[in-house]
Inverse folding.
């Protein structure tokens, strides 16, 4: 952009990533003097914590997404750019895109995380994870296909394999997925088949930790485990996956190694920061922080580069006690709001105290009307926790129609235990386009 | 299935296809003595006439689909089989599936139609059509990507190419798609871009016929054309597409050939019956009817095979005056209901008079609050026709939540001209899965 002498020089803020952190930063710059460019490779903001609802047919992709341009259309100082960031050149203050380059005065990197298979990338094809809309529709197709495969088969061994589901990772995603899958098998699909009983499905939740939801208290873990077991979920703790093949998982349990014939394996375990982390670490000459994340100063800037902020799942930020902050939506949102405030103030020549995370509590839902919640010292589970979860998620969903639609979908499925979005759609890879 | 001596012999009816015709047949057999197997390669019933709404971001795939198992769960004599029919062996009375075979006593073939590129299959990649959910999400991504491409470009020629859309075929699908695209460009995306004006988009509707919607009266055609022009759609009639390449279409107009630089070309023209037509024609020793369809007796049975009924887009049925019936949803629904009645009666030893199509009218919608309708001798357009269209489509949508959700989506987009489902999602073919 040419800077004409009559126009005041407006600093250019580039934000990489339209997730919780990037979007909150952009919104926080609404009244600032900055010209903002938000770069994302997707044209929509995604409410990631509800991806498991798409994966289990409860919600449609568009109900947990909102077009970035739509969200930001009334904020004229922001332009959205649909492109893929290749790397960041800290020295030239430039973001390298596919075919072009964006120079910045201030940079916010909030590119998020992807799956991490602990060095076993060959597991990816057998055990898909849940980070994108495409992941969710792929998992949905796998889950529903498993029941179809069992119904189609005459071989009891194949039926049993098809109806065995292994979920790797008993954090929030794995627990919520297991709960939703339990609902699906025991209630939603109950009358749908003629040759199999879907409630015979075996759902195995596997984790190396000694309890589910290790970030919560032991009481909440126990409540969650109890709710899961009521939905028929088998929980294997202190158990590590050592091999994943087609229709097969090997798990090392405290009492020895077992191989389970399972038609469906889903990955809800390790995450790794976006590849941009490597570009930033190299450019700034830094060693990676815990989990490969990028170390940041207390004000979330990149050490040695006060013009660059790193947020969300990409940043190795810590709380006041030095404990690393988890890669969850509330952290990303608070960091985004902080970044917007810090940059606005800096453009006016004001300084800002360091970022402090306010832990507002933990919540996980396990099927219909069952959840666990910890807010401050309050711990509760069951129906009240579920209602709280519902309210918070409805409140945070971006975009007005989505909220209303989601509320109706949930109300309906609460009353009927049905799930409307049970579509098996295929990507081009799985099946060729239909021939004439 | 073994037939034990104590159980009465229940005739096996196989229905191929869970579209309007197949589903109506299955429902019509609810109180019959038949054991019914409904085979479809998809696990859901699709409300095809609204696919263009998915393609233009107005509705989500799940809002115009309903799981077949869910629809039929309370009809215990029907089992759904998710499989792909390879061919029909009329002599052995067997339907050949991917890995197995189903024998039948009575067969209903309602496998529908696919696109037909008039011998130019190489056009398929440049000009996708609109028959499946995947088609619709692919078209949605192309349409939205076109605006992104223009916004990203600095080259005015490329911007103009990106913002030129050619729709081939001015039947109901082409007209409704053109109207929805006009709405999208002029209203929905109005504030979304910073470097381009989406309303500058050029939308070209091309057809070889002398008017749009040739199945309707000339007055209705004129009203539809007028509504389209108000949305900025350019209509080229008596015009044939002679070549389609990347970013280019060649069109033969009455005054000579023109090549248009167009980033997006969509196919809403020829259809051909499913490949099963060939299998039936060969097996029965018949010549194909108009458009490659299968000729049928007045009771929709295959000539020489009273145990086989052919319905919907696959059948070359005619009205009382001998005029071929069009490949539209009302014909398929009425034929399906007729087939259910005929088979139920035949199982009780009763005969049924021939099928007669009752033309309840024609309807096409062109953007917000604009439509044309012809019911009997009544012809109307504008707001009343649009309300009628809305009521009929809400009424026919299968599944209760869908109806409510669609009503809300439409109410919301009517009031705000927003479209909630503007997601650019990619199939595995277009972009590799994200790397860690």
């Amino acid at each position: 952009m040419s800077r004409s002498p009559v126009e005041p020089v407006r600093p250019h803020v580039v934000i990489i990533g339209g997730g919780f952190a990037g979007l909150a930063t952009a919104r926080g710059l609404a009244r600032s003097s900055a010209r903002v460019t938000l770069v994302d490779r997707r044209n929509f903001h995604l409410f990631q914590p509800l991806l498991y609802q798409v994966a289990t047919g409860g919600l449609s992709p568009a109900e947990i997404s909102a077009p970035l341009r739509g969200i930001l259309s009334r904020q004229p100082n922001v332009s959205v750019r649909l492109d893929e960031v290749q790397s960041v050149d800290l020295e030239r203050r430039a973001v390298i895109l596919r075919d072009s380059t964006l120079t910045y005065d201030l940079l916010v990197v909030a590119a998020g995380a992807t799956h991490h298979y602990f060095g076993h990338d060959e597991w990816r094809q057998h055990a898909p994870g849940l980070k994108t809309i495409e992941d969710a529709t792929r998992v949905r197709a796998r889950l529903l296909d498993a029941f179809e495969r069992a119904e189609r088969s005459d071989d009891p061994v194949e039926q049993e394999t098809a109806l065995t589901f292994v979920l790797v990772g008993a954090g929030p995603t794995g627990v919520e997925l297991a709960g939703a899958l339990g609902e699906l098998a025991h209630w939603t699909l109950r009358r749908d088949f003629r040759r199999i009983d879907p409630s015979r499905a075996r759902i195995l939740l596997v984790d190396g930790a000694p309890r589910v939801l290790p970030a919560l208290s032991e009481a909440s873990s126990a409540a969650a485990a109890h709710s899961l077991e009521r939905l028929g979920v088998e929980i294997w703790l202190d158990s590590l996956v050592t091999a994943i093949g087609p229709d097969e998982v090997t798990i090392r349990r405290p009492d020895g190694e077992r191989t389970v014939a399972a038609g469906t394996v889903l990955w809800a375990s390790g995450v790794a920061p976006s590849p941009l982390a490597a570009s930033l670490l190299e450019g700034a000459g830094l060693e990676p922080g815990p989990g490969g994340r990028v170390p940041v100063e207390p004000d979330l800037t990149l050490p040695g580069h006060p013009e660059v902020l790193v947020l969300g799942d990409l940043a190795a930020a810590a709380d006041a006690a030095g404990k690393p902050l988890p890669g969850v939506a509330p952290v990303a949102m608070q960091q985004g709001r902080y970044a917007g405030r810090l940059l606005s103030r800096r453009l006016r020549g004001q300084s800002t105290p360091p970022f402090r995370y306010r832990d507002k509590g933990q919540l996980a839902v396990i099927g219909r009307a069952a959840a666990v919640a910890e807010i401050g010292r309050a711990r509760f589970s069951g129906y009240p926790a579920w209602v709280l979860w519902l309210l918070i998620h409805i409140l945070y969903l971006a975009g007005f129609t989505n909220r209303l639609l989601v509320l109706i979908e949930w109300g309906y499925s609460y009353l009927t235990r049905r799930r409307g979005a049970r579509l098996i759609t295929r990507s081009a890879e799985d099946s060729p386009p239909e021939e004439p």
In short: The first strand of chain B starts at residue 12 and ends at 16. Confidence is low (pLDDT under 50) at residues 428-436 of chain B.
